[in-house]
Design goal:
single chain; about 210 residues; mainly alpha; 11 helices
């Protein structure tokens, strides 16, 4: 087999460098916020230069937006890949809720980034064409499940996809974002492994009980 051309190798190097920068930038912005994060620190941690980061992304704000785009696109892609068409509507809803639960638990930086962007009143998301285009993918799978449930006479007629998305998302975000204050006030760790399956099942029960009420 012929060796890859130098052009192909250079492209791979660019993709690797860009991915490394995004990974470190995600951690930096999640830990320190948009205002506190420093491009110099990101450059140092990626063994590159501030100039190189600007070459790839254009500036600090553009890098931050790229981090948000990657974070939101990841969960939307998982939702789109979810194969639930063969499942009963109740089981499909439960799988979607559990997917969100698992994703958010595995990506605490995503929760921090969402919180940070809300502090900034979503001004950066509003400027992103990529993020503005993720509204429909966020609801497509859910809308199809609800439609099947209503057609079968098993889901309430007034169920709104965005309402259900909000309930699932708020439960999963609260569990991560409020972990420390909840523990300080109620002396319960929301990420206690012994309570994980109970919480995961509870989320599905809450949504299904509402839809079938």
């Amino acid at each position: 087999m012929a060796a890859p051309s130098s052009d192909v190798e250079r492209q791979r190097d660019k993709e690797r460098t860009r991915a490394d920068i995004l990974a470190v930038a995600t951690s930096e912005f999640a830990d320190k916020g948009y205002t506190g994060a420093r491009v110099d620190e990101i450059a140092a941690r990626t063994s590159t230069t501030k100039r190189m980061i600007y070459y790839y992304f254009g500036g600090k704000e553009q890098l931050y937006v790229a981090v948000l785009e990657q974070a939101y696109s990841a969960i939307r892609a998982l939702e789109q890949q979810l194969d639930v068409e063969h499942l009963e509507p109740e089981d499909a809803i439960r799988q979607l809720a559990e997917l969100t639960f698992d994703h958010h638990e595995a990506h605490p930086d995503f929760i921090r980034l969402v919180s940070i962007e809300n502090i900034h009143r979503a001004e950066h998301i509003a400027r992103s064409e990529v993020l503005s285009g993720l509204a429909n993918p966020a609801l497509d799978v859910l809308t199809r499940i609800l439609s099947r449930g209503r057609a079968a006479g098993r889901f309430r007629a007034d169920a709104d996809a965005l309402d259900i998305h909000m309930v699932i998302s708020s439960y999963c975000v609260f569990r991560l974002a409020n972990r420390h204050t909840f523990a300080a006030i109620f002396d319960r760790d929301l990420l206690d492994p012994q309570r994980r399956e109970h919480q995961r099942r509870l989320l599905g029960d809450l949504v299904i009980n509402y839809l079938t009420a």
